[in-house]
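Blinded run. Sample ID left blank on purpose so nobody reads anything into the name before looking at the predicted structure. Input follows.
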Amino acid sequence: MAGVGTSIETLSEHACFGGVQGFYRHQADSIGLPMKFGVYLPPQAAHGPVPVLLFLAGLTCTEETFAMKAGAQQHAARHGLMLVTPDTSPRDTGVPGATAVWDFGEGAGFYLDATAAPWDRHWRMDSWITAELPEVLARHFPCRPGHIGVFGHSMGGHGALTLALRHPDLYRSVSAIAPIAAPMQAPWGQKAFLAYLGPDRNAWAAHDATELVTWGGTLPPVLLDQGLADKFLAEQLHLDRFEAACRKAGQALTVRRHANSDHGYYFIQTVVGDHVAHHAAALCA
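Blinded prediction complete.
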């Protein structure tokens, strides 16, 4: 189980598929506020360190959403992976407008470090997830050093791709489910980037997976699943742009398109076992 220390608070723990699903909070120096995250410890963690698989959730989600809805713990238990689910943004920030709309502000951190006021004070999700949270996990949980994978859905799929491209030495495996794959072309991304990063589109491109691949960024072989009945596909996700950029760059990418599948958690439940297996092949070797 997690160690007890001044820098982590246990909110709840639950027996789950032979392991433990827990939810925790710590004071995040990078963000300047308390941040919550979930950890599923598979049964193998009772006997020694295990690889870590990070899931980044989409708009409006919290650290609990994926853990409660996706049914991924059974697959993590089978493969011996620790599942980690960070919250999607700072909370209770007091920033005017932070809770005014569902697709921006709290619940919509877009996994970047904001540079424009007033968001630059607390919206530092890149730093928290890639630098501070791994240290917290290593201190309190039985993590296998250097064996970390990342995947995500929608805004979190964007986060998984861009964080892996921006930090190429951090993640051994990457996948995404219905990601916002070219956010500079998407209303969600444009809205967030303008507020968080200001009007300089060069700054936006540094957080756009399609642009980063075009610039020469590389990823481990990527698994990507997309539902063809997804109402956000044409306007918000722009999978075809990312796929074309990967093809041109020689980036290994497997895209699976699913008829009649939408953007929600029933689709995630359908494909999540394959994603966990994809990561296990790279992390458990």
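Unblinding after everyone has recorded impressions. The CA atoms of residues 3 and 140 lie 5 Å apart.
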